[in-house]
Fold this sequence. Notes:
Elements: H1 6-9, H2 16-38, H3 40-58, H4 69-84, E1 88-95, E2 99-107, H5 108-116, H6 119-127, H7 129-134, E3 141-144, E4 156-162
Antiparallel strand pairs: 1-2, 2-4, 3-4
Amino acid sequence: xxxxxxxxxxxxxxxxxxxxxxxxxxxxxxxxxxxxxxxxxxxxxxxxxxxxxxxxxxxxxxxxxxxxxxxxxxxxxxxxxxxxxxxxxxxxxxxxxxxxxxxxxxxxxxxxxxxxxxxxxxxxxxxxxxxxxxxxxxxxxxxxxxxxxxxxxxxxxxxxxxxxxx
Length: 166
């Protein structure tokens, strides 16, 4: 079965956590070298912008999907949930026509990046993608996230809101 994220995953036999670990093997030493050369603030700003640009370009795949903007978001959100479900523990708060709200109470991605001492890099590689996927909804879906495990909070709070259907 093909998944809208197959190209992103590169090799569908790899878990998303394994893919992320491979990315970190390259990015962490590069980021640390840039920090040593340019200073932490400048190096982190360059990395942040480069990774945000990469993620936004990557998840623009929603533009090529069929259906309404909300259906495009749903396809991408479901595909991402399929590849992350074994790495996170989710507690559903609300799921109806107006909202999808849940908390992630355990995340192996966060544990990995926090152990590396690079939670900000993890937030850029993993957490920020949720906002890029929301862009596929063209304003029909919003996401508010007050806190993340990656940044030391007790949970990640996902609060998706759905525009009324016309």
